[in-house]
Structure formats: structure tokens, C-alpha cells
Specification:
The complex is a heterotrimer of chains A (248), B (205) and C (97).
Chain A lengths: L7 E12 L2 E7 L11 E7 L5 E7 L9 E7 L5 H8 L6 E8 L13 E6 L3 H13 L6 E7 L8 H9 L4 E7 L16 H8 L7 E6 L1 H13 L7 E5 L8
Parallel strand pairs in A: 7-8, 7-10, 8-9, 10-11
Antiparallel strand pairs in A: 1-2, 1-6, 2-5, 3-4, 3-6
Chain B lengths: L27 E2 L20 E6 L5 E4 H6 L3 E8 L4 E12 H6 L9 E6 L4 E5 L9 E6 L2 E2 L9 E3 L12 E7 L28
Parallel strand pairs in B: 1-5, 2-11
Antiparallel strand pairs in B: 2-3, 4-5, 5-8, 6-7, 6-11, 8-9, 8-10
Chain C lengths: L7 H4 L2 E2 L4 H8 L7 E4 L5 E3 L4 E3 L5 E4 L6 E8 L2 E5 L3 E5 L6
Antiparallel strand pairs in C: 1-4, 2-3, 2-8, 4-5, 5-6, 6-7
The chains are: A alpha/beta (248), B mainly beta (205), C mainly beta (97).
Chain lengths: 248, 205, 97
């Protein structure tokens, strides 16, 4: 079945602040179609004078949740669309969207594993769709998420990630902090490097399906490092998010 | 016919009101200086950098970076307009006037068009009459600082009266020609001249 | 502490996946998993792996290996320009009827 690539008008069902600069928008879609974890939707804003702005946002929710999608959006300093969504959009408002889009950066339980996910900042959003789907599908495929954030306050979905890990179904989560770690933190506290990737990926082996998402420069650095430590290059998929200030 | 959906409370970051008479049709003022590019930033070694004028000229010329900096330079404050609809007013540049460069070569009377060719493979074409008589410079400073690589440094062409895709970044030289030859964006539907005041964005305009 | 050279131009670069919407518009099917061969260096890869430059008057997709242009797309009112000189071939799956 060909997914609809027409624009449709979604309604904002809920808005949830994830941290100081990130919010998750739950949108009810009149023409929802089941997406594949990792895909995105395009969002389009139109001003009364005809001026348009359009951006793509990864779907953070799992396809098992029908009729609606979650888009997790970071407020960018000069962001036209993100500032509208954060500062103007309210529950009950309508917003034009198109999707689901993208076939390259997707993972479904049927694809197998093991699964290695590497996120920088808001790049965790599409990976969250994959992990939520993995849980909803009852999968026990070994999976590890390495998630880089500046400070604990920057972490998105903190509680839910802990719950998913505690389910004991083979998912392990590793946080690293690049600016400031939590009090008494014994885990990683630096930018992602070869050593860290080697340690985290070791139990998964060199043939893990690997997905890297975040700011472009972080994704490039990590993708190069993964190849350097011997991960199979053709199993590494990247989704660059463009610039966000500096490397997380 | 269904009306287009309008987003409640959305006006965009770009405002027109302040300088309406200085903005060509369809343009909006932008606070920053957007970086638009068709490819990765070329890495240019100043010791290898040259600027060339060739084609229908009496005497082709080439300058090294040191030689180029010896040429009389001028400052200018101009408005710039990008075909993607953003404009920036009162931008400050420093560089060598194209007229100064042309004095060194002597233009052949058959020359009617110019192609600017650049590191990284970009090119753009424009009528000769749009690049002479004080209308264009090869700029190496923006806002008092050396031109940043992402904005075209070490040097870019600056032709502010035309859409900014004509102000070719990472310029290597100019070629004078009798016949017009479509450059990078012109070969993909964009206008051969590109006058923002006549909204010459596309080939059909 | 290492200093990071941030090249804003490179930081704006995206994956071919970012072009999924416009490619689907033009080809009417999902294109990011279609195989393309770079006419310049012969490297083959899914379109999702191409480097995408979206901040421009048009979309430019470049080969991941040699960074030469594989495809260019520009949209003027009512028309789409497509340049595929940089692509030796494009392999699209047909739906089973």
C-alpha cells in the first residue's frame, strides 16, 4: 500500500515539555498510516501573506500507536518552525503535515539485530521510535543505546529510557555527558570516541545493525569512529540533523 | 477551489515593514547571514590561490594572493538579495573592483558575457554590462573581517544588484565570452541575468 | 582540550534521507532505498546514503565517497528541473502487480 504523500491537517492533542528546550507534540492525524520506526514527517507553516516555512521532524512514537504521532522538537535559536511550535502552537490547534517519509533510516524488529543506536542530543527522537516499537513488539533482540547529552538537564525521555531498560528484555542504555555529569556519576563523561564505542558495542559484535542520529558533525565523527573500530560499514546508517550550535 | 490552510499565529521571522522600499518584490529581511551551498566548503591554500581573467581579452592576467592584495581596494556598503527570498541590508565588504582587474587585460569588443568559475566546480554567468562600471568587486573582507570560508572565503564575486547566486563564492576567475553559457544554477532553470527588481528568478521570468 | 573546527557549511550537510520528501514527490515512490551508481567514481549506494545539500536554490545530492554531484533538483513555479548526469544508473523496485 502506497503511503499517502499528500499534505493533511493534523490536530495538536498534547504538548509535553521534555526539558527546557525540547517539547513533544502529539498530533492526531485524519489520514494516519502506519509508519516504520525512523521515518519522519514534514511540517509546513503558512503565513497569511503566503510565506511558507517547512521542516522535517522524526517520528518519536511507535507505529503500534495508531491514529496519532509524536514529534519531539528542539527549540532552535533562530528556528522559524521550532519557535512557532514552542511559543505559539497550543492544544487544539491545527498544523499541516506530510508523511511518513523515508525508507533508508528505519529499523523494525523483523529486520533482526543485534541493534546499536547512537544518539546526540535531539537525535534520540527517531531512535526512541525504534525502542518503543521494539518494546511494543515484545522483541528480545539485544540492543544498546549510547546517548550523548551536554548535561543531565539536556536528556530527553530520561524516565522512560530507564523504564525500558528495567524491563529486562535485553536493552541496555549508556549515557555520556560532555559538559557536566550528574553528582557522583560513575559513567561516561566525555565526547563519544573510539574507546567508548568499542566498549559499548563489544557484546553486540561487528555485525550489529547500527543507527547514528544527531547533529551533522557528531554523526560524521561517530560514523568514522565506528568504521575505525571495525563495525561493518554497510550496516551503519546515519541521519544528520544539521547544525545545532556545537557538537553535543 | 479549497483555500490554502493558514497556520494560526504564524508570521515567519522575516518582516518586510521596516524597509519596504529597499526590498525587491517577494523578499524578506533576515537577521542572520544564511549559508547556502551546493557542496562542501573548498579548502583553498592561500599559497596556491590565483585569480585569472581569460577568454576574449587582449592579454589574459593572473594574480597570486599577495599580488591581489597589492591592488587598490575599495569598501562598499550594499544590500544583498538571495533568490531563496532572504535579503540583508547594509552589508559591508572590501575588495578589488572588477573594473580595476579588467584594466589589466583589455576587453575584446566581441565579449558580451562573463562566466565566473570557482573552486569546487561552481560557476555562474552574467552579461558583461552587469559586471563593469562599478557594479562588481572581487571581495575578500566582510564586515571588516577576512571573508569566512563558509561565505566564500578567501574571495568571492560580489554583484549586489543581481540575485546573490551570481556573487559566486570561492571564485577562481572570470572568463569573457561572446556567447552566454549557463552556469550551475542557470542550467537548472534559474535566470541568466537575475535582476531582483524584475524578479528574474527563473528562466521563464 | 581539543578545539573543534566547526565548518558551518559542512554542519548543514544532511543525508539523502532528508531529500526523501521531494524525491517521493518527483518519482511517486519512496526513493531513499533505491540503488544509485555514481557516474564519477562508480561507487554504488542507496540514495539515502548520498550527501544532501538542502540549503540552496536547489537540492544537490553528492556521492558519499568522491563527493561529486550525483543529482540536482530545482523547482520553479509549475516545473521541476532534474539533472542526473552524475548518476550512471538508478535502480528502482517495481511493485508486484
Amino acid at each position: 500500500m502506497k503511503p499517502s504523500l499528500e499534505w493533511q491537517i493534523a490536530t495538536v492533542k498534547a504538548i509535553k515539555p521534555e526539558n527546557a528546550r525540547v517539547k513533544t507534540f502529539t498530533l492526531a492525524l485524519p489520514h494516519w498510516s502506519e509508519h516504520r520506526p525512523g521515518q519522519h514527517y514534514d511540517v509546513r507553516l503558512v503565513a497569511p501573506d503566503g510565506y511558507q516555512a517547512q521542516r522535517s521532524y522524526s517520528i518519536a512514537s511507535e507505529p503500534e500507536r495508531s491514529g496519532e504521532i509524536d514529534l519531539t522538537v528542539e527549540l532552535l535559536e533562530d528556528g522559524e518552525v521550532s519557535s512557532y511550535m514552542h511559543e505559539v502552537l497550543t492544544v487544539g490547534d491545527q498544523i499541516e503535515v506530510r508523511g511518513p517519509i523515508g525508507g533508508y533510516f528505519v529499523w523494525e524488529a523483523t529486520m533482526g539485530g543485534p541493534l546499536l543506536l547512537v544518539a546526540g542530543g535531539s537525535g534520540v527522537a527517531p531512535l526512541m521510535s525504534m525502542l518503543r516499537h521494539r518494546a511494543a513488539a515484545g522483541s528480545r533482540i539485544p540492543a544498546r543505546l549510547l546517548y550523548s547529552s551536554r548535561t543531565p538537564g539536556h536528556v530527553i525521555y530520561a524516565d522512560e529510557l530507564e523504564r525500558l531498560q528495567n524491563a529486562g528484555d535485553g536493552l541496555e542504555i549508556f549515557h555520556t555527558f560532555t559538559r557536566q555529569a550528574p553528582e557522583g556519576w560513575a559513567g561516561y563523561a566525555r565526547r563519544i570516541d573510539n574507546q567508548m564505542l568499542s566498549e559499548v558495542s563489544a557484546p553486540l559484535g561487528k555485525l550489529a545493525l547500527t543507527y547514528v542520529c544527531g547533529p551533522t558533525l557528531l554523526v560524521e565523527a561517530v560514523a568514522n569512529e565506528l568504521v575505525q573500530i571495525g563495525m561493518a560499514p554497510n550496516l551503519i546508517r546515519t541521519e544528520r540533523f544539521g547544525p545545532t550550535g556545537d557538537i553535543v | 477551489m479549497a483555500e490554502k490552510f493558514i497556520s494560526r499565529g504564524f508570521f515567519g521571522k522575516r518582516r518586510q515593514a521596516e524597509a519596504a522600499d529597499r526590498l525587491p518584490p517577494g523578499q524578506y529581511i533576515t537577521p542572520g547571514f544564511p549559508v547556502l551551498s551546493a557542496g562542501p566548503t573548498p579548502r583553498i591554500d592561500l599559497s596556491q590561490w590565483t585569480f585569472t581573467i581569460e577568454g576574449l581579452v587582449r592579454q589574459p592576467a593572473q594574480w597570486s594572493w599577495e599580488e591581489f592584495l597589492q591592488l587598490p581596494a575599495q569598501s562598499s556598503v550594499v544590500d544583498i538579495h538571495c533568490v531563496t527570498k532572504w535579503s540583508k541590508l547594509d552589508t559591508r565588504w572590501e575588495g578589488v573592483s572588477v573594473d580595476t582587474l579588467f584594466e589589466h587585460v583589455g576587453i575584446d569588443p566581441r565579449a558580451k558575457f562573463v562566466t565566473a568559475f570557482c573552486h569546487g566546480g561552481y560557476s555562474t554567468n552574467l552579461p558583461l554590462e552587469d559586471i563593469i562600471n562599478g557594479q562588481a568587486t572581487v571581495a575578500y573582507k566582510y564586515d571588516g573581517q577576512p571573508l569566512a570560508p563558509e561565505h566564500g572565503g578567501p574571495a568571492r564575486l560580489l554583484v549586489p544588484h543581481l540575485y546573490f547566486w551570481k556573487s559566486a563564492k570561492w571564485i577562481q576567475g572570470l572568463r569573457l565570452m561572446e556567447a552566454d553559457k549557463a552556469g550551475f544554477w542557470e542550467s537548472l532553470g534559474y535566470h541568466n541575468r537575475g535582476d531582483p527588481w524584475q524578479e528574474q528568478r527563473y528562466w521563464s521570468d | 582540550m581539543e578545539t573543534i573546527q566547526t565548518d558551518l557549511n559542512r554542519a548543514l550537510m544532511l543525508d539523502g534521507n532528508a531529500a526523501a520528501g521531494i524525491l517521493a514527490e518527483i518519482f511517486s515512490v519512496e526513493m531513499t532505498t533505491s540503488l544509485a551508481e555514481c557516474a564519477h567514481c562508480g561507487c554504488q549506494g542507496e540514495m539515502g546514503t548520498l550527501l544532501a545539500f538542502t540549503q540552496a536554490p536547489g537540492l544537490v545530492l553528492r556521492c558519499r565517497d568522491c563527493e561529486n554531484i550525483v543529482m540536482r533538483i530545482a523547482q520553479a513555479p509549475g516545473v521541476t528541473y532534474l539533472d542526473m548526469q552524475g548518476m550512471a544508473f538508478l535502480r528502482m523496485e517495481r511493485a508486484l502487480v
